Amino acid sequence: MTTEVRSTSRLDSVLKRLRPIFENIAAGAVRREQDHTLPHAEVRQLVDAGFAALRVPTEYGGAGLSIPELAEVLVELAAADSNLPQIFRGHIAFVEDRLTAPVGHDRDRWLRRFAAGEIVGNAWSEVGQGALGVSQTTLDHNASGWTVNGRKFYTTGSIYADWIDVTARRSDGIDGTALVRASQPGVVVSDDWDGFGQQLTGTGTTTFTQATVDGENVFAFADRFRYQTALYQLVLLAVHAGIARAAERDTARDVHNRQRVYSHGSASLVREDPQIQAIVGEISSVAFVAHATVQRVADAIQRAYETSAQRGSADDDAANIAAEIASAQGQVVLSTLVPEATTRVFDTLGASAVSRAKGLDRHWRNARTVASHNPWIYKAKIVGDWTINQTPPPFIWEIGVRAPLTDASVSTQGAPQ
Questions:
Q1: Distance between CA 120 and CA 353 in Å, rounded?
Q2: Pfam families, alphabetically (predicted)?
Q3: What is the DSSP string of 150-164?
Q4: 167, 123 in Cβ contact below 8 A?
Q5: Boundaries of every domain in the chain
Q6: What is the pLDDT of residues 392-405, one digit of tens each?
Q7: Are 212 and 147 in contact (CB under 8 A)?
Q8: What is the gyration radius of the CA atoms in the chain, in angstroms?
Q9: How many CB atoms lie within 10 A of CB 26?
């Protein structure tokens, strides 16, 4: 049973504080993309207004939002500029990891850092010919302490961050994570992401050369909160919902203001043309479905959060499976619906819609780029296997080069006859 997000005093308070910033962010979105101006100032405005601590409990200085309430804020921000929620994706996940950590000094220290405006970037993925499931980044310990060495790509948000959440292989073979101070000389973050969409997320290369790490900021990867993949995906679903809302907004505005008509159209004004109205209705309907999907997935993840203190219990297992399946179902649907809706924008306005000055193409480019994360085709298979066979979904996966199969390693067990 889904719970609709209704207006609450804490959510109202957050949105009242943030909406003027969202309006300012939206006003400059096209120009920033055209000039490739990274939104450092906009990120700082959000952080100064408490954005980094939306999930942090009020007793630590945060807003204390639930996951469904957080999702509402993310959709509104994405409608202003879809780059911004994705910039905070790694931060949102690490906040959640600390929220679900054992109560104590380590947890408290991080929650207070978030409330003070410190933010976290992400450095998990690697490119190149590394073996599947084996990190090429190392986390070593000696008499001087811990150091990280390696090269990461897709390090979304790290160019804006105070800390970087790095995955690495320890010398004892254990997969770990380390929170590295971004400002130290051993860390270099490059804005070399060349994707055609989400161009301002800072999704580029980060290099670590003898980067130092305090021992208290080294964690075992196996201890991470269980619903992290679903939460990461929820942020992207919220980005999709915001893009759909922005496409609806921009299309309705431009259609309403358009004066030129085609002689073979169906009305004397474009805004009165039933064919155009139907297309805008399609776009609006996708925006509606995208928002509803975000709400449903956020509800499922909230339940996983609520069972996190009973990690590994039957209730916790069920909640985490439900959250992972819900996020995958949402991804399968929105990865096709939203890019399609953002192409329909151009069916309403004719050739003038492709003007670079208008920047309407960014909606499709951004939606298509978001849809390329964690390819949805594999998620469709996972959902199908769960639906048919009740096979639990994988919660973590890797990317890399798989070792070639040898004759000795090939098994015919279960192969079709």
A1: 38
A2: Acyl-CoA_dh_2, Acyl-CoA_dh_M, Acyl-CoA_dh_N
A3: EEES--TTGGG-SEE
A4: yes
A5: 9-119, 123-223, 228-389
A6: 999 987 777 776 64
A7: yes
A8: 23
A9: 16
